[in-house]
Structures are given as structure tokens and as C-alpha cells.
Amino acid sequence: MPAVRLAHIGLLGGVQLALRGLTVFYGPNNSGKTAVARALGFAVRVLNGGEATSAEALALISRGAEAGEIALDDYEIELARRPRGAVAVKVAKAGEVLYRREVSGVIATGLDERLSADVLIRVRLDGVAVVDRGVRTLSLAELVSPGVAALWGAEWGSAAGADEYAEYMEEVNDVLSDITDHELVVAGDRLYYRSGGMHFDEEGVASGVQRVALIAAACTLAGKLSERLGASPLLFVESFEAALHLGYALPLLRLLADLEDPAVVETHSGFVLRAAVLKQWDYYVFADGAVTKDLKTPELLWREVQVAAELT
């Protein structure tokens, strides 16, 4: 279970988060929800022995603050502004300093730590960013192309690699067809949707169906990385409700809740929050640089939950 603590990161003052199972992040734009994903991506790369940059580190520190802190599991990453665009980076575990340096340019700690979340899969509106030692951003077409098998170590072109890719696509299509009555078909470098015996390209398919396909592929990829590489993925779905109506959103939430690995849903929707409350999924409400679980504190939020209850 990833345990996260942030201090003076983005718009957040000081927050503590436990990410187990499905966790809903609720709040308006510019309330700090996405800052959590950016901080996690930075921490995963730095602790996995990948590379980040001093510019990225400085962008994480809250405006007006001289320093910020990201804690993941037992690791603490301290970032402090230095003159001429440099940043002082200190990484410690249980009080023991593992890395300390003032950097202007590339941050490369050389660490290779075992984390409770060592791969971050960020589902954006237009694709999926896979963050471990580096960042690979994939469109839906790339996520369902045969080359995706290389992400979990399968050798495309071999019989075993072809079988694993076919199994992966079957799992993606099982989810997609159950929710939308569509399936994905890859023909060469083209992606089609099949429904009712007919094939459609992306321009002929509703954006909600494409959104379901993207999330289904990300969930299936997380499972493959866990199964084949022994990785510990964390799925982070940004702007979850974008293009989704309730008939698609609720089954997707159940899918995310049933994953073996933790998942975070970022949302502005009171309906999604209400589902979390009723299903006893974890949730955090972001407002004014802090997080709370008290639904009665933000007045607007409480009215929205009441309205949702009256409509169902």
C-alpha cells in the first residue's frame, strides 16, 4: 500500500495519503489532485534509478516556498531552491541519507530501491504515460499494437510473444465489449472498432467508447506488468468522468476497484464521490491546499452529494 506525504508541493500545503484499493480524489480544478501524480512520477524515477531534471523538481515546489518534500513509503525526498535555477536534492530512508547533491540539469541518483509502487500508469485524456525509470507516453493505438508486449518483456515475433499479445487483447476486449458492445481490431497500423458486425474508425466512434478502451487497456497493462515483471503498478486516472456517462462510468469504477493493484481516480463529479461513499472505497476531498474526508465541511460538495442522492 503506497503511503504518500507531500509538503509544499504544487498547490498543496501538507497532506498525507494512503493509497489502497480504489481511491477517489475529488475537487475542483487547481486544487492539487494532479500535483500528487506529478510528485509520484518524480519520486518513482528518482528512487528507481531513472532520471529527472532540476526544472521538474523546481516546478514541483509550491510557488512562494523555498523547499518542498515528497515522501513515498519510508523514503523522503527534499527539494530546495538554489540560485541560478539549481535545486538541492536530498533522498533519505529512515534517517539515513542515500543521496545529496545540488543539481542544475539532470538528476540521476543511481538508486535502485524496491517500492510499493514502482510503476506509475497515468491515464490522461489523449493517452497513457508509463513512468518507471523513464516516461513513455503511448496513444491508444500504440497501447493495442503488437509492440506493447515489449513493455512486459515479451519478444514480439516469437510464438510466445504473439500468444501473450493475443491474450492481452482478449482481456482488453472483454472489458470493452462488456461495457460498450464494441471490440478493438488492429489491422496493420490501423485501429478499428467492431460493433454489430460493422467496423468503424476512430472518427466514427463516440468519445466515451474510446475513453473506456483507453482505461481498459491501461488496466490490462498494469496486470501484465505485475504478472510478468513482478512490478507494483499504481494506476492514476486523470479527469475520470471525461466523455463518460453513468452507464460507462459505474462499470469502470467497479473494474478499478477489483484490480489487485491500487488505483486512483481523479474527478470533479459528485456522482463518482457518492459511489465511493456508498461502496466504501477510499476518498479524499481536495480544497484550499489541503485534503479532508469530512464531506460536510465543503458546503458545495455536500449539496452536490445530496442532489445526487435525490436523483437516484
Short description:
The protein is built from eight helices and 19 strands. By secondary structure, it is of the alpha+beta class. Helix 4 packs across helix 5 and helix 7 packs across helix 8.
Explain this structure:
The chain is α+β, with helices and mostly antiparallel strands and 312 residues long. 34% of the residues lie in helices and 32% in strands. It contains 8 helices and 19 strands. Strands 12-11-10-16-17-3-18-19 form an 8-stranded mixed sheet, sandwiched between helices. A 6-stranded antiparallel sheet has the order 2-1-5-6-7-8, covered by helices on one side. The protein has a 3-stranded antiparallel sheet with strand order 13-14-15. β1 and β2 form a beta hairpin. α4 packs across α5, α5 packs parallel to α6 and α7 packs across α8. The longest helix has 23 residues. The chain starts with a strand and ends with a helix. 40% of the residues are buried. The model has no long low-confidence stretch (mean pLDDT 91).
